[in-house]
Amino acid sequence: MKRQIIQYKAEAQNVNLDCSLSGYDYELPPELIAQNPAVPRDSSKLLVINSPEAGKIIPPLHHIFRDLSELLKPGDLLVMNNTKVIPARLYGCKDTGAEVEVLLLEERGHNCWLALVKPGKRFKVGSEIIFTAGEDGNKQELRATVVESDPETGGRLLQFDLPPAVPLVQVLGKFGQIPLPPYITASTAADEQYQTVYAQEQGAIAAPTAGLHFTPELLEKLRSNGINQAFITLHVGIGTFRPVEVEDVTTHAMHEEWIEVPADTVEQIRATQAAGGRIIAVGTTAVRALEGAAQSGDLQPFVGKTNLFIYPGYKWQVVEGLITNFHLPRSSLLMLVSALIGRERLLDLYQQAISSEYRFYSFGDAMLILPEGKSIQL
Asked: With 80 as the cut, is the pLDDT of residue 54 above it?
């Protein structure tokens, strides 16, 4: 059945679509939004891009993700995000009994978290939310007080009432739930299926989804083939999934996210480059961490926050190739990948993926952009 897949909504001749929000539109049949992950993880489809420019396109190659060990070269380095998703969605109530939904975003102080609260307008400074866990006779209670509003996100700063030695993440397993994205509405996935197999550092509110395709067996096969692995941490927050709402994307302000690029990872990257190996980022979060840590012009160990926004015209510092899932229209993630291979070409590849019934978004299939597929003008 023929489908009209891609719609280009900005047709004015003088508009630079690379910098226009409407230039990142496409239509996706709803049935291609993956509701559950592939089982096993590495059985998902993999679209491989290995040609640098639209005028000389070698058609993309269709593979299975477990083929990755044959598609990369000995000496290549995969850089992965080892963040771990926390049970960031909580359901509570006010002292009146009115129900409240909370999505934690990031910790701003000890047990003081920025959160989105529904219904938010009713929560003034001083309002209290009560969360309960367990059955009657064994109920536990957790309380939080609104201490400040946050105009940038529309959220609230919540101070949780816990002993000083007890961090909130230590008790979230009792009171919270792993938050799935809103487009996943009919999932039967277990919580661990929304974690990478190498997740270690608690703090994300969404998974770095390109990493969901890896299995322990595939990681071991990659190592045995001489393809090395290094880790960064970026706690996925509102900056990753916050929609771009301005037509001129160059004026979009990214929300800051916490990253750590450790010294041993920097050393691995330098050694790989010196030996002629290639740096392949696993996911857009790994890209933002690496490029964010290299904004001085030279990659350095880094711990702190980044609000780096990557879109076409960006000058790459570290990343040469990318493993990524298929992203939402008009998203900053779509713009980041466009910066690597070009916007028009990316939308054309998305059309081919849709025609081949690839599955999209968090639980969907993947794309491998090899260094030789990177846009030559960048």
From this structure: no
